[in-house]
């Protein structure tokens, strides 16, 4: 059991919530940062033992108060909700506040391929934040997932349109995709905080399985007995109502192979779920 304090930004979201839950399960003290401490997700974390505090990632003074006495900080921002400029500003503010607070270890929840020249805003902006983290000098580790398995199931991602329809059309049905489950990212983050001497300075691409959309569709059929529901939508309409950046991402992936080893992820978390295992757990609930 580790009684040091970790401040978790975005603690009521998917990623921050998974990190907070795994830290709490490991005996860490967790300070969950949120804009709305009265929300159901915030109260659920409080029920697990987290200290829930109101904080604004765009306000360094607010963050300084939230980081007081913290050994570590988990930093993740939501550019889809607030815009990419706001994501960069928030990521920089978290790094500034962590450095000023004397935090020993900042773990940054990034994404993408580790390059800042892809033209995919939601990837490139994270490289800007990483450069700022390096500049301010706070000890850090980057965790870099590419595609969460929840894209195939979470209603908020509207998978019938996105992952099962537009994504394979723009990227290709047989193009390998690097997958990891959000819960497994949470377990990995907790492990990284527990062993900073092994991971400070690392940028770790997270991959639990590599499967094409065609393979994922067949696995879904095998596990559930039916194909995942699809809702075809023209690309121009998807870009207008959902995300131009996702369309750019999928086009970029069509033309740019990514060869990512599972070994670093499995060394940190040997039980990270494959796509099949994740689907079996999902449909057993």
Automatic annotation (TrEMBL):
InterPro entries the record matches: NAD(P)-bd_dom_sf, NmrA-like, NmrA-like_oxidored
Q: Which SUPFAM superfamilies match?
A: NAD(P)-binding Rossmann-fold domains
Source organism, top-level taxon: Bacteria
Renumbered to this chain, the signal peptide range is: none
- Tagged with keyword DNA damage: no
Q: Where is the NmrA-like domain?
A: 4-255
What are the alphabetically sorted keywords of the record?
NADP
Q: Which family does it belong to?
A: Belongs to the NmrA-type oxidoreductase family.
This chain's protein is named: NmrA/HSCARG family protein
Gene source species: Actinokineospora soli
